Amino acid sequence: MDFTQxxxxxxxxxMLGWLVLILAPRRxxxxxxxxxxxxxxxxxxxxxxxxxxxxxxxxxxxxxxAEVRTLFxxxxxxxxxxxxxxxxxxxxxxxxxxxxxxxxxxRVVQAPILVVTFMFGPIGLLLFFIMRASQSALTTAxx
Length: 143
Fold this sequence. Notes:
By secondary structure, this protein is mainly α. It has one domain. The protein contains 6 helices and no strands. The protein has helices spanning 3-23, 28-53, 65-72, 75-102, 107-120, 122-142.
C-alpha cells in the first residue's frame, strides 16, 4: 500500500469535510453524508489498516510508551493513527455543530470552535463545553 498517497488523500478528504461542516447549510443529507459517508469511509480505512498492520509490529502495543512508539514506527500503523484522529475529530465536530445549532448559536460563533476542534481536537471540545456552561450559567442567572 502506498502510504505516501493515502496520507494526503485522507487529510484532504477530512479537510473538505470540515469546510462543508463549517460553511455549508446543515441539512440532514449533508450531516448524514459527513457522518455515514466521509467519517464512515475514514473509519473503514482505519479498520483495514489496523487489521492488516497492527498485529505485525513486533514489540508494539499499548502497554508502555516504548510499545506505542514501536507501533508508530510502522507506516501502516502511523497512517492508521492519523486517520483515527481525522475521523474522531470530524465526528466530534459534527456533534458540536449539531449541539450548537440546537442551542441557537450563530454560525460565526461556532466557526472558531470548529476550527480549533479541527486543529487541536480536545481543546475545541473543551472550548465548546466552557461556552455551553457559560451560556447555561448566564441563562440561570437571568431567570
